[in-house]
Design goal:
Shape: elongated
Largest sheet: 7 strands, antiparallel
Strand content: 25-35%
Length: 518
């Protein structure tokens, strides 16, 4: 026989085909093992959202990463690490987990309902072979044994000379409720994504905020949210107060900070005072306003070469050193004449002079505030080119090369105290440090899925306790020639520990007289 003839006679494995592959994919996706793997991946995928600053929560820290390490920031952005919870790969895990849980819950629910309608099985003929076996004392018939087991909350079935009892169905109920709670949690997250919105805003002391789309520094609405969906509240930041540890090993550590607000719940409502703290958000009609950060906004006045005030106001600065709140500031003056002016500054809340003549901040509080001019420039800043620019960057690299340095390095003046000024060379104007304000960053969020998520989490906890603590167990009684044999077993693998004491109590109840049965 030739090789070709042998191959023709040898049975070939059947090909799955499209339907077969789809069936295999569905069975794999809806298996419990896959659901656990996806749940693990879901938790694992959330970790970068805690380790890497998120644009929706800490936009100032994201901007600082772009400033300090642009290459790293580009890689982070390429993999959506600044926006983890809106990333396509996070959404893919979320949807696969949702489908997998549905595929797990539906068939198990059907099986569970059938199990509830099924009577306990017939008692085995030889109860001595069961893990637990004993002989009850006294005389007992089938009806009395069934009655006593029902009083112990067993579901009972009887037959000629035997009683079969079972309980512990709530264990499987707990398993199903746990999966349903996970589904509810995913639905709640989806509700928040569709019908909720989040936004970030930076507010300086003395300024206000109105809950409109235009007022946000960053606004992320759900797909079902419109501008009319926002609650019409507003507030003004009257004062910001921060306290720090003055001595000891933790000198300079933040103890507490509070934003004192004047709040209008609606355009018609009167103003009310509210102290906004880190863990005490302002809530108005389901919208929460969280205090997430703060920093300094020194006030500068810039007079141009023609003697006109071209800039006068606070400048929010990015924190460069958290322990001392040393901050970097950028002042752009595109309206200055005859040339536009730009300044790179460093704000020192508590300035001290080192032995080498340099100045640093020694404490985060305002004990000796000074502003150090790192660089002063003149020329076209490119703000009217139509290209977007960051307020925390003086100009793009290609524009910076064309600017004329006016004061840098050794030509830079000593740090300015409040009330001091520096005259620019070539009679191009002067910059004056006039005061210090503070800014706060807020996250404003409306999440209709917040309460359903809380309820789903509570249900999952209760269900998990049920599935871990409740045992599925069976008890059988056979009565023959006046002898009462009792047998028992647990149907849950690995949960037999502790059933011995319960079994002994069951035998005691079957042996007891009428007055002693509990």
């Amino acid at each position: 026989m030739t090789v070709d003839e042998l191959q023709k006679e040898t049975p070939q494995p059947a090909k799955l085909g499209l339907v077969g592959w789809l069936r295999w994919f569905w069975r794999t996706l809806t298996s419990m093992k896959t659901a656990l793997v996806l749940l693990f991946l879901f938790a694992l995928a959330s970790i970068p959202g805690s380790l890497v600053p998120q644009r929706s929560v800490e936009p100032d820290k994201v901007a600082l990463i772009y400033q300090n390490d642009p290459a790293l920031a580009e890689w982070y952005d390429r993999f959506y690490l600044f926006d983890v919870f809106t990333a396509p790969w996070f959404a893919a895990i979320y949807l696969l987990l949702f489908v997998s849980l549905i595929g797990c819950v539906l068939p198990r629910t059907s099986t569970y309902l059938k199990e509830l309608r099924r009577r306990p099985p017939t008692a085995p003929k030889n109860l001595s072979r069961l893990p637990y076996h004993a002989r009850a004392e006294g005389e007992l018939d089938v009806e009395e044994a069934a009655r006593r087991l029902r009083r112990l909350r067993f579901r009972v079935a009887t037959g000629p000379g035997w009683v079969s009892a079972e309980k512990g169905y709530l264990r499987e109920t707990g398993n199903l409720l746990f999966h349903v709670a996970l589904l509810g949690l995913l639905v709640a997250v989806g509700m928040g994504s569709l019908f909720g919105y989040r936004g970030n805003v930076l507010v300086v002391e003395g300024d206000g905020f109105a809950n409109t789309v235009a007022a946000y520094d960053r606004y992320m609405p759900g797909s079902r949210v419109s501008a009319e969906s926002l609650e019409p509240f507003s507030f003004t930041l009257k004062d910001f107060q921060a306290s720090y540890q003055l001595g000891g090993d933790k000198r300079g550590q933040e103890l507490d900070y509070t934003a004192k607000l004047s709040v209008n719940d609606s355009p018609e409502s009167p103003a009310r005072d509210y102290d906004l703290k880190v863990n005490e958000p302002l809530e108005i009609d389901g919208t929460q306003t969280y205090l997430i950060g703060h920093g300094y906004a020194p006030v500068f006045r810039v007079t141009d070469g023609k003697g006109q005030i071209a800039f006068d106001g606070p400048v929010p600065c990015l924190i460069e050193s958290k322990p001392t709140l040393t901050s970097g500031c950028v002042v752009k003056v595109p309206d200055a004449q005859p040339e536009q002016l730009g300044f790179l500054l460093q704000f020192l809340p508590t300035s001290v002079r080192l032995t080498d003549g340099s100045h640093v901040s020694a404490f985060p509080g305002q004990l000796n505030p000074q502003a150090k001019i790192v660089g002063a420039f003149s020329g076209d800043l490119g703000v009217r080119s139509g290209k977007p620019q960051s307020v925390y960057q003086l100009a793009p690299d290609d524009v910076m090369k064309k600017l004329k340095p006016l004061a840098m390095g050794s030509k830079a003046p000593p740090p300015l105290a409040v009330g001091q000024s520096f005259d620019l060379p070539d009679k191009l104007g002067k910059i004056e440090f006039t005061g210090v304000k503070e800014w706060m960053t807020l996250q404003i969020a409306h999440d209709p899925g917040r309460m359903p998520a809380l309820l789903a989490s509570a249900l999952a906890t209760v269900a998990l306790v049920m599935s871990l603590m409740i045992r599925r167990r069976r008890v059988f009684v056979r009565i023959k020639d006046g002898a009462v044999d009792v047998g028992g077993l647990t149907r849950t693998e690995g949960s037999g520990t502790g059933f011995g004491e319960e079994f002994a109590d069951i035998v005691k109840a079957l042996s007891a007289g009428e007055k002693d049965v509990r």
